[in-house]
Design goal:
It is built from 12 helices and 7 strands. It is an alpha+beta fold. Strands 6-5-4-3-7 form a 5-stranded antiparallel beta sheet.
């Protein structure tokens, strides 16, 4: 992973003018470093300019065929804005970013909603499911979650998602997709990008240690876990216990496994 991308993520996280589209373009670059940013922005602007339903832009996008990629939901391409614009298929958060940008460009108030497991968008007072590009309600969304969620976990279910939250969530999607495929080096890259946003996040450092362990770099794994302990000691006993247990499991070997 290029240092330039890490630097751009750091700049993004400190830029009060950064928006969700910029977050999605950063993620797009993670997957394709040859991306023509201006070409993607132009295509998005064309969608804004041609909008036939400026009061309900989700209906406009639905009419153009933008919808969830049910056939290949786990494909990393769903996190690529350029692929979304070409295929008109994506996952809730990539479709949501597009809807937010189009709506705002048309003068509407639009924010992402960091709903668990399914990113949502609020346009004005209307809650929208970007995966289906239809109107929905909080009651319907909570019903879709089922009964397996503790009420305490749902207190912030409809909290607005900042651009930084959007970036971190998109990187998390890729992190878990790469991990499921055993591509630990790429999953590690996603953790490092998230740490560029939040360098003192002990949870991410434990994940970093796990990725390094998977890659056989025991010394790097121990370093990440020790930093997690240092950051969490006195504030998060659960994190400290978990990291210490991982250190014991690693043993004393500092080298690279073969």
């Amino acid at each position: 992973m290029h240092d330039a991308l890490l630097d751009d993520v750091r700049r993004f996280s400190n830029d009060p003018e950064a928006d969700e589209l910029a977050a999605a373009l950063l993620v797009n670059r993670v997957l394709d470093d040859s991306l023509d940013l201006n070409a993607v922005k132009h295509r998005v602007q064309c969608l804004v300019d041609d909008c036939s339903n400026p009061e309900q832009p989700w209906m406009y996008l639905a009419e153009l065929g933008f919808a969830g990629n049910r056939a290949s939901y786990d494909s990393v391409d769903n996190s690529r804005l350029d692929w979304l614009l070409e295929q008109r298929r994506g996952i809730p958060i990539s479709l949501g970013v597009l809807l937010i940008h189009v709506a705002r460009s048309l003068g509407l108030t639009a924010v992402g909603i960091n709903f668990p497991g399914h990113f949502l968008v609020r346009v004005g007072s209307q809650l929208v499911d970007p995966f289906r590009m239809i109107e929905t309600s909080e009651r319907e969304c909570l019903a879709d979650l089922g009964d397996g969620n503790h009420p305490a976990a749902l207190v912030d279910a409809f909290r607005e998602a900042s651009p930084i939250t959007v970036l971190v969530r998109m990187l998390s999607n890729l992190k878990y997709q790469f991990a499921r495929r055993g591509e630990w080096h790429r999953s590690l890259d996603m953790v490092d990008l998230q740490l560029a946003v939040d360098p003192d996040n002990a949870h991410l450092l434990i994940e970093r240690g796990e990725m390094w362990w998977r890659l056989g770099a025991i010394g790097s794994a121990r370093e990440a876990l020790q930093r997690a302990i240092s950051l969490a000691r006195g504030s998060d006993a659960e994190i400290v216990t978990l990291a210490e247990r991982r250190l014991v499991e690693l043993g004393s070997d500092e080298g690279l496994l073969h």
